[in-house]
Amino acid sequence: MSTPLLEVKDLHKHFPIGSVGFSGKPKQLLHAVDGVSFSLERGETLGLVGESGCGKSTAARAIVGLHPATSGSIKFEGHELAGGSTRDWMPYRRRMQMIFQDPYASLDPRQTVGSILTEPLKIHGMGRPSWRKTRTMELLEAVGLNPRHIHRYPHEFSGGQRQRIGIARALALEPDLIICDEPVSALDVSIQAQVINLLEELQERFNLAYLFIAHDLAVVRHICKRVAVMYLGRIVEIADRDDLFADPQHPYTRSLLSAIPHPDPIRERNRERIVLQGDVPSPLNPPSGCSFHPRCPEIDGVPGDSCKTIVPILQKLSETETRQASCHLTCPR
Q: CB-side exposure of 212: number of CA atoms within 13 Å?
């Protein structure tokens, strides 16, 4: 089998909270990412979904090195990056780029569009000034903007246009992987469709791989080939898009999908919602065993106290299946 473009194994990212005591250790640790594992092939789109605060964006920032991982493995084409120095990361930063959620905050208001798009080229020492200007105009044209607008500032563009500038910046260094951190959630619905179509066109044109982070399951179903579901810092299910939406295996995935409204009024009227009880536990003090067990509506189906005491492993449901889930109820023990 070929080496995956990106392979993440048992990734953890913990943030210290509170003052450090005499032992030199912080009083508490916030378990933002608590053992995430997945792989991504070249040209593939993997969706990463879950409630706000479940660790999606933190995992993405750890993967590109914006947050140093607490532990775990991050391999890009087989090269280990976790724990590496700035020099170790440098050859791979060009090949991994990010599109941020807020098109208003992710662009420097004091820089022109031309300066924003030229900056990564300067940092990596690519080309002469005349070539960089030509490259900048090509990037604007590739994302559907007028190349003559390189001297304008971000405030002169609409939200959708600003996000296109963010996409152009991510394309500047000709990456293999782009992490899309909820790139359409701050945009109007009509503009969302335009940006999604643009991302699909660019993927086909440049053979890009996307890690697409979102909470809108309709968008994920449209653009992603595989979907990973996160809950409280852990992935609870990974499956092909069609398999996941047709037959979800984890109780949390079933509850998420049950919340999707249906356009048919009759089916919408008969749709059964799975309403979870209680609130999401705090990542400062995650539950023992399965992190979902305090809210799981199917916990009575598991004999004994396995859900409360044993952390389920993300594993295949059977030897013939590719989907994975971490649940004592659905996975073989």
A: 29
